[in-house]
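Homework help board

Subject: predicted structure for assignment chain

Our instructor gave us this sequence and asked us to write out the predicted structure in token form, then describe one feature. I got the tokens but I'm not sure how to describe them. Can anyone check?
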Amino acid sequence: MQLQMLEEQDDDRYIKYEPIEEFRIFNVVADKEETDMFEILIAKGQDVEKLQSVVDMYMEWLNNCEIELTNYLQDQLAEELPIQWMKSIVVYTASIVFNSIDDYGATISFGAECVAGDHIVELYFEKEEIIDNILVG
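My token output:
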């Protein structure tokens, strides 16, 4: 996935990037018109070319993490989810942060009728592990 630099962030620690081509989170296409809702932040001083393979791998994982996501949510809800539950997901925001090759994560908010009704779920990831969540609304 090729990245295009957009802007430096206000806190002077990160530079905001945008994928040049279409990308997906939870198998939902990120709307290019909503670039302020989907951000990839790379720490200043990091060589983007050296991070490229990690960015590609992580974006692929975030798109294909259905088993991990389903298992996590079923554990949290203490109930089974419908087989096709991911087809109902609407991703609202995603902030994907790369501090280094070994230090990255994401915060993703989404809705799915069968998971949280009219609430939004915000998930916190460290690498490929969901570490926490908040139910909003």
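Reply (TA_rk): Your tokens look well-formed. For the description, you could write something like this. Residues 72 and 78 are 10 Å apart (CA to CA). That's the kind of observation they're looking for.
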